[in-house]
Design brief:
This protein is mostly helical. It has one domain. The protein is built from 5 helices and no strands. The chain has helices at 5-24, 27-41, 45-62, 65-83, 110-114. α1 (5-24) packs antiparallel against α2 (27-41) and α3 runs antiparallel to α4 (65-83). The longest helix is centred in the N-terminal third of the chain and has 20 residues, at 5-24. The radius of gyration is 14 Å and the shape is globular.
Length: 127
């Protein structure tokens, strides 16, 4: 997976927006931002694990047993899989998606996650 400063900065922006929404009690907005942060943060074990921790907290607040179970499983494995670079591109990280299923990237995240070659703009950025 492509690790770039721009990708990390985009992750940081989504994480901040998720924290703000969570603090306001807007759990739907927080989860949406966490899904985007998850896609962006997968290459970094700490960032990846943090998104699952926050998703677990939202699951707990919602009393959503499926989300709680899913996030505990993902917390146990996610950081290690980031370190090993063995993660499905585009996966949003919620328990509603199988943990190994790749998903299409949101169009605004393609360049950040796959590099300029992903849109036919130039050579892909090496990892």
């Amino acid at each position: 997976m492509t690790k770039t400063t721009a990708r990390r900065e985009a992750y940081d922006r989504e994480a901040i927006l998720a924290r703000i929404a969570f603090a306001r009690g807007d759990l739907a907005e927080a989860f949406y931002r966490l899904e985007r942060a998850h896609i962006l943060g997968q290459p970094w074990a700490g960032a990846h694990s943090w998104t699952h921790w926050m998703m677990l907290r939202i699951g707990w607040r919602r009393r959503d047993a499926r989300e709680i179970r899913g996030q505990i499983l993902r917390l146990a494995a996610g950081g290690l899989l980031s370190w090993m670079d063995r993660l499905p591109v585009g996966n949003t990280g919620g328990a509603d998606v199988p943990p190994t299923k790749p998903l299409p990237l949101p169009s605004d995240l393609v360049l950040l996650c796959e590099g300029p070659g992903a849109l036919g703009v130039g050579p892909a950025t090496p990892s």
